[in-house]
Design a protein that fits this description.
about 250 residues, mainly alpha
Length: about 250
């Protein structure tokens, strides 16, 4: 059996990522810093994104920009338990080596992962669902505050670019590209939050069909609370680099 070049590339990159950065985890659940994650992946991601025609800035990240990318990691990774391969795909998308379109959009992934794990009772599956939704909810606020600081500084950045004659031409395009990257990350997090919510709801209704339990009420409340917390983030005013009304990009731009 032969594989297409695209599939071979995907398998190779995933294998490199698995071997290079997933043995241990650091803060926020991310892989610990390695030569791959700190040097090779960012450089490869920059050139991969550029080759796809996406906005890419060579500027160094500010502390807030770097922290925002760290906090985004939780939301852009798959929520599904045991999704090792999809986790690596998302990891490569986070570094921009792969486009966001490579991620799974199957809302059944989470349910399949949840039911593939051995639990003592059906209540444990509902509890896991509620715990995952609550963990997401608690991390949205810090990400939103982080994103608000980045957007505020991006406004200062663009006003300076437009008003100051001391900013050379070769710095103007990378400045704009960084703003696009930052806003694109917020959009991407919102898209994946929406995907998580739909995945959690899909899992809940199918759990109720297969193994009804009073624990479903707790899980449903956790999902509703997550939705309420996500709304302010995904409605926060941005600069609008993606057009009128901040239209969501098709692919991740940063």
């Amino acid at each position: 059996m032969t594989r297409s070049p695209a599939k071979l590339l995907l398998a190779t990159l995933a294998a490199v990522s698995v071997s290079a950065c997933t043995a241990t985890t650091g803060d926020l659940g991310r892989p610990r810093p390695t030569v791959w994650s700190q040097l090779i992946a960012p450089e490869t991601g920059f050139w991969s994104a550029t080759a796809r025609g996406e906005q890419s800035s060579y500027f160094r990240l500010t502390d807030d920009e770097e922290q925002m990318r760290d906090r985004a990691w939780r939301f852009v990774m798959p929520a599904s338990p045991n999704s090792v391969f999809q986790g690596e795909v998302s990891n490569l998308a986070h570094t921009r080596i792969l486009p966001v379109a490579a991620q799974s959009t199957d809302v059944g992934d989470y349910f399949h992962g949840l039911t593939s794990i051995s639990f003592a009772s059906q209540a444990s599956r509902y509890n896991r669902l509620a715990e995952d939704a609550n963990a997401d909810r608690l991390l949205i606020g810090p990400f939103r505050a982080n994103a608000a600081r980045v957007v505020s500084m991006d406004r200062v950045r663009m006003r300076t670019v437009e008003a100051s004659p001391d900013v050379p031409v070769d710095k103007q395009e990378p400045a704009y590209a960084r703003v696009v990257e930052n806003e694109g990350l917020v959009f991407w997090v919102c898209e994946r939050l929406d995907f998580r919510l739909r995945s959690y709801r899909h899992a809940l209704v199918n759990l109720v069909v297969e193994m009804p339990s009073r624990e479903a009420v707790k899980a449903e409340r956790a999902i509703m609370a997550l939705e309420m917390e996500a709304r302010p983030l995904c409605q926060m005013p941005l600069i609008g680099t993606f057009g009128e009304g901040g239209k969501r990009p098709v692919v991740y731009k940063g």
